[in-house]
Amino acid sequence: MSINGFDILWDEVDDYVADIQSIRSIDQLTFSKPVTFFCGENGSGKSTLLEALAILNGLNPEGGTRNYNFSTYDSYSDLHNHMRLWRSRKPDWMYFLRAESFYNVATKEMDYVDALHPSKEYHEKSHGQSFFSLMMDQVSRNGLYLLDEPEAALSCQNQLALLYLIQSCVKQNCQFIIATHSPILLGFPGAQILSFDDGKVEEVNYKSTSSYQTMKLFLDRYDYFVEDIKENEI
């Protein structure tokens, strides 16, 4: 793996991130598998920590490679300034995929083209097609990939396809750190799953994640939910 973990030097932090309980509970964190998932409710701190890791690795906060240098709106914390990476080796390639700012990255990609690097024309594809195409275009041996809610644009079938792509990359010494709500992606075999719920970060098994439990409850009791929704129309 490229990254084995990190420390946070809390004595130096003077930022809103100190009020995010799950992140505040971390003094140090170890990545034990080549695929690590951050899971938990909205606002629990998953994307904030992933963003800090991206910036700490020299990646653009809005997404892209280390060659991307632009800003649409600076809203990120300075947490990265107070973290120390435990790096075992330098990756040959890195990419930060951020669902919420993908449009900006796809637009900026057209500004960076030249004769040797033609545009991939992500805007000419559907949202889901462009997401998956980008992953296919960017992955390479010995890479580090930080993905923030990649399921946002992917169908269930393409989420499954992404699992196979990740497995293929892991066999080529790649590391993935992924923030997700998807019960499909969280099902990647042998992954490290870190829950950000209940104001702390702790390692959990797949079937104890809220994403899995909520989806299973809905599928098992679909008829009940349909009737309950009908009776409680807004």
Could you explain how this protein is built, in words?
With 234 residues, the protein is α/β, with parallel strands linked by helices. The chain has a single domain, classed as P-loop containing nucleotide triphosphate hydrolases (Rossmann fold), CATH 3.40.50. Helices cover 31% and strands 18% of the residues. The protein is built from 7 helices and 9 strands, in the order βαββαββααβαβββαα. It has a 6-stranded mixed beta sheet with strand order 5-6-7-3-8-9, sandwiched between helices. A 3-stranded antiparallel beta sheet has the order 2-1-4, with no helix packed on it.
Briefly say what this structure is.
This protein has a single domain (3-206), classed as 3-Layer(aba) Sandwich (Rossmann fold).
| CATH homologous superfamily label | P-loop containing nucleotide triphosphate hydrolases
What are the secondary-structure elements, in order, as H or E? Answer: EHEEHEEHHEHEEEHH
Q: Architecture, CATH level 2?
A: 3-Layer(aba) Sandwich
Over the alpha carbons, how many angstroms does the gyration radius reach?
18 Å
Low-confidence stretches: none
Largest sheet: 6 strands, mixed
Which key phrases capture this entry?
234 residues; alpha/beta; Rossmann fold; six-stranded mixed β-sheet; three-stranded antiparallel β-sheet; 7 helices
Topology:
Blueprint: E1 3-8, H1 21-24, E2 28-30, E3 35-39, H2 46-56, E4 83-87, E5 93-98, H3 102-111, H4 127-138, E6 143-148, H5 156-170, E7 175-179, E8 192-195, E9 202-204, H6 210-220, H7 222-231
